[in-house]
Amino acid sequence: MGDYSWTDPPSQTAFPIARPGYAYILGAAFATAVFAVLDLTLPALFGLLVVACICGFFRDPDRVIPNGSDLVVSPADGKVIKTDIVDDSRFYQGRCRKISIFMSVFNVHVNRIPVSGTVKKIDYHPGKFLNASLDKASADNERNAVFLETDGGVGICFVQVAGLIARRIICGLQPEDRVVRGSRFGLICFGSRLDVYLPENMNLQVTVGDKVRAGTSILGRMV
Question: What is the pLDDT along the chain (223 residues), one digit of tens a residue?
Fold first, then answer.
């Protein structure tokens, strides 16, 4: 495909749904069917709307991934709300570039690997459920940090942060897993945030306010 490639095999359905959404969809569909059998028209119609909304939230579209060993792609769909230089973060030794992406309930919530490499550590912390757009959400909210070493030997970290409505962080990675840029690795249910910690001297290619798509949008280039 030239400048792009498939990291994960394309889905065989017209509207792919992330597997964690099946239980929510089936539960809402069952309740809707009960309302319909009982001839409760308004609740049944409302149930159909809920089913449609849940399907929309858990949609998992295929993505083509830009080629280039030095590229860092977005791990999430959403809006860039921070691109600051920070000192001595708990997720990175020394100065680093922190890029934060806020996902509303309307965004795709399937998360993807930003760079190829090897997972070194996964660090989960329970916490609060503050609005994920707030700066203190990075430190106070429930979160799951993935520490990764790139193929070039550079350490980075990306952190799934729960939000105001989110109550479940899903991560399918384990230490020593070999991962490929753009492949799916997890999901955060119902509104959340992704923080990415990268070397300070990376060539940044996004600014605050930019809309990004997981796996497809380029955050920057490693120097």
Answer: 458 888 888 888 888 999 988 999 999 999 999 999 999 999 999 999 999 999 999 999 999 999 998 999 999 999 999 999 999 788 998 999 999 999 988 999 999 999 999 999 999 998 887 777 777 877 788 899 999 999 899 999 999 998 776 568 999 999 999 999 999 999 988 768 999 999 999 999 999 999 999 999 999 999 8
Task: Please give the structure tokens belonging to residue 164.
Answer: 């105001």
* 207-213-214 Cα angle (round to 5): 115
Q: Give the whole-angstrom CA distance, residue 133 versus residue 79.
A: 10
Catalytic residues: 192
CA distance linking residue 64 with residue 72, whole number of Å: 14
Report the topology of domain 70-221: Glucose Permease (Domain IIA) (2.70.70)
Matching residue, tokens 């949008």 = 217
Domain range summary for the chain, segments of one domain joined by +: 19-57, 70-221
Q: What is the CA radius of gyration of the chain?
A: 18
